[in-house]
Amino acid sequence: FDGMDLSDMYGFIEVLVRSPEGLNRPFLPYRSQSSNLLLFPTGEFKGVYFSEELKFAKKLGYKILPIRGYLFDRKPSPFRKFVNEVSDRRVKAKKVGDEGMSYCYKLIMNSLYGRFGINPECTNTEICTPERHAYLQSQADNSMNVIKLVRSDRIEIKRSNKKKKVVYVVSYVRNRKNLEEWIPPTISAVQLSAAITACSRIHMYPFISRDDCYYTDTDSVILGNPLPADHVSSTELGKWKLEHEITEGYFLAPKTYSFLTKDGKEITKQKGKAKNYVCYKWFANQYRDPSLVTKIKHEAEFDRNWKKLNIIKKVYDLKLQLNPESKRDVVYEQGKWIGTKPKHVFDYEVNDRYHLKLDVSVLEEDIEKLKNQKDPTLVIPLQKALDNIKAKLDDEIKGKGIKQELMPTEDEDPWLLRVSEEEMNERLLLIDVYEPWWLPEQESSCLIPTESKAQLLELPTIDQK
């Protein structure tokens, strides 16, 4: 990407980003290496993003340093006609009161997006003979690690008047990293769903970032004030549907809320086993004292026993309590919970060189802006800082060695291309020392153009106060 501007890129880019200061509702997500949680933090971190959301983030004040990635050709959306036709049929089904067909059309539209985003690394489960089990075990243990065993249970089946039969229940995934030739998955196209999700975030952010946004979840927001009429429609794709008018409510955590509507309904959402034991009053009490814990007995009608391959009824001791907010930091004032703020992260695992290059990029932008000022002395301290960082960057490159930096292992970099050693050595000779990666030209295409992103969204609900 040496010399290439972000505005000219279209595809999936690995970048180092630095968020603007004072951002209460950060836009770019980050996968925590320690907890595996998807956060929306402030700070400085590395991630892989769709180019269109990076361009949007840059407008919000994010500083972005492209590192490497895959670029695609921009093509017209293949989904526009399909989605519009299915949506029209759903509207007609609603008009005639056919709720069954309306629901089917909704599933078809949602499944289109979900199907493309399915994990290509599917888990295969077999009930097999000892001979087949031995073969699968050999495939997992050999030097190529063709498969990875997830579970392997030995089961004895008792049969009347016959000897016991031994079978194995084996679950495994194919190790695609160690295949001699990379084969594109036939059951999914993750790049399409990833692009749709990124465009959805762009579409949602102006509403999520409002000061009167109390809660958001996937395709809905709860706002303190009404939206303009031209943003609301129960039938038009890409617009909001007014689902409820709320008088009061408690929104304590993701998928953990309860509110009262203008027409007197109580609507409660609670994930997990506790969903049948909480109500509006419980949420009110938890808000007043987040440390409250209530112990109850929970009876599971269908609990799975994997060892015996049985479905059993089981009684659990269940604690009803509010888990500490894990995706944002809780804010207290004089001991009272008043809100949350985004977590701040600094990805120390990112190569120091990338942090330095981002500093260079930011300083160069600032210097360019100040050149138009009447006072040239404003540029001098920034130019000195820039020269110092460039010198440090030169030392970093000379000290660590170029080839080592350019050749991550497959474990460190799942995007490592499979090319011959001779070809890779030839490419290494062509690389500028300031550019840490080279990707051969790709003739693939991403089929999600920016101008059609609204056609790909169905935002069916909006909750408003």
UniProtKB/TrEMBL annotation:
It comes from the Eukaryota. It is an enzyme of class 2 (transferase). PROSITE patterns: DNA_POLYMERASE_B (PS00116). Its EC number is 2.7.7.7. It holds the Pfam family DNA_pol_B_2. GO terms for molecular function: DNA binding; DNA-directed DNA polymerase activity; nucleotide binding. Gene3D superfamilies: Helix hairpin bin, Palm domain of DNA polymerase. Belongs to the DNA polymerase type-B family. This is DNA-directed DNA polymerase. The lineage of its organism: Eukaryota, Viridiplantae, Streptophyta, Embryophyta, Tracheophyta.
